[in-house]
Design goal:
acyltransferase, mainly alpha, Acyltransferase, 15 helices
Length: about 350
């Protein structure tokens, strides 16, 4: 986002989304990451974020799409721009990462080499988000290109369609991340609506919105602590409602935090590379005999956030690496990647 169009409130939410994403992958799903068992406060924390983490990332993507949405008849430029931004890093970062996971020692998630090489078709890691959001960009972009989304009323109709599809059973084969796209679409459309109604939302919900988010967070932590099985199904009516309401509540907060704004400027690099640095931190500390869960989580979080920042800064200095590994335009002066992307 250019500096003149940058919303510090949205950048703050983008940084918050990065923090939630990295924290989840450091703690890991049940049996993954640090292999933290049920009953641990860290396990409760990881599970309680399930209805907020990816919906927030996607909500912000929809919000920012509405600022730079396709205009006129230049759909080909829009298409190739999204291929460069999403599909090129999928092949240059996602597939090599999956191959490394398949052949490397000391990984928690077992991936066979064939699945790793075919991960561009059937996702096996957090890179499913790239495929899913690419489908969404193409779907919404086509509707926009044909002039079918020019009113807020039509956005509400699209949201209703997305909600219905969201509640249907997933496809047996998650070809090119189609199930992920269906899961994320309602939150993307909510982000588009949020952009159109941002002033009204902040005026009418400036007090109750943040309070609602706090209450939702407390309720999620309580439910995750009492019965994890009640909170892990993302594609249900509760997940849809909680995700949408949480995103709108956070938008209404008008929150600004400089360190989150700074993180938000590197959100794409953090999404792409955080697992590599977090896993390396876990392996190194494990070899050194560190077993304290708090120390492992803190180290993984810091490395998972700051490692990608350094790597993104290096890649952005060179046209080739900037394009291949960050999806940036080769001719653009190198700046921190600032497109919101990131449960795997």
């Amino acid at each position: 986002m250019s500096s003149k169009n940058k919303s510090l409130e949205i950048e703050t939410l983008r940084g918050l989304a990065c923090l939630l994403l990295v924290l989840y992958h450091v703690i890991g799903p049940l049996g993954g990451g640090l292999k933290i068992d049920l009953g641990s406060p860290l396990r409760v924390l990881a599970d309680s974020m399930v209805y907020v983490r990816m919906p927030l990332f996607t909500f912000i993507s929809g919000y920012i799409y509405s600022i730079y949405k396709i205009r006129g008849n230049d759909f080909s430029a829009y298409f190739f721009g999204k291929v460069r931004r999403l599909i090129v890093p999928l092949f240059c970062v996602g597939i090599p990462f999956s191959v490394l996971q398949a052949v490397g020692p000391g990984v928690n998630k077992e991936v066979d080499l064939a699945s790793a090489l075919l991960s561009f078709y059937v996702p096996v890691n957090h890179f499913w988000f790239l495929q899913a959001v690419f489908i969404i960009f193409m779907f919404v972009g086509l509707l926009e290109w044909r002039g079918l989304l020019h009113t807020v009323r039509r956005l509400y109709l699209l949201l209703a369609f997305a909600a219905v599809v969201f509640l249907l059973p997933p496809f047996a084969v998650d070809a090119f991340g189609i199930n992920g796209a269906i899961y994320l679409l309602p939150f993307f459309v909510m982000g588009m609506i949020g952009h159109e109604k941002v002033n009204a939302i902040r005026q009418s919900l400036k007090v109750i919105g943040p309070l609602v988010f706090v209450l939702i967070s407390v309720a999620l932590v309580y439910v995750a602590a009492m019965d994890r099985e009640l909170i892990v199904d993302r594609r249900g009516l509760v997940g849809l409602l909680v995700g949408c309401v949480s995103c709108v509540a956070l938008l209404s907060s008008n929150m600004r935090a400089q360190w989150l704004i700074w993180l938000g400027g590197y959100s794409y690099g953090i999404f792409l590379f955080h697992v590599l640095f977090a896993a390396t931190s876990r392996l190194v500390l494990g070899r050194l005999g560190v077993s304290n869960e708090g120390a492992l989580v803190l180290s993984g979080l810091v490395c998972g956030l700051l490692g990608p920042v350094v790597l993104s800064s290096i890649f952005s200095r060179f046209a080739l690496t900037s394009t291949l590994f960050l999806g940036e335009r080769a001719a653009r002066k190198k700046t921190p990647a600032a497109v919101t992307l990131p449960q795997s």
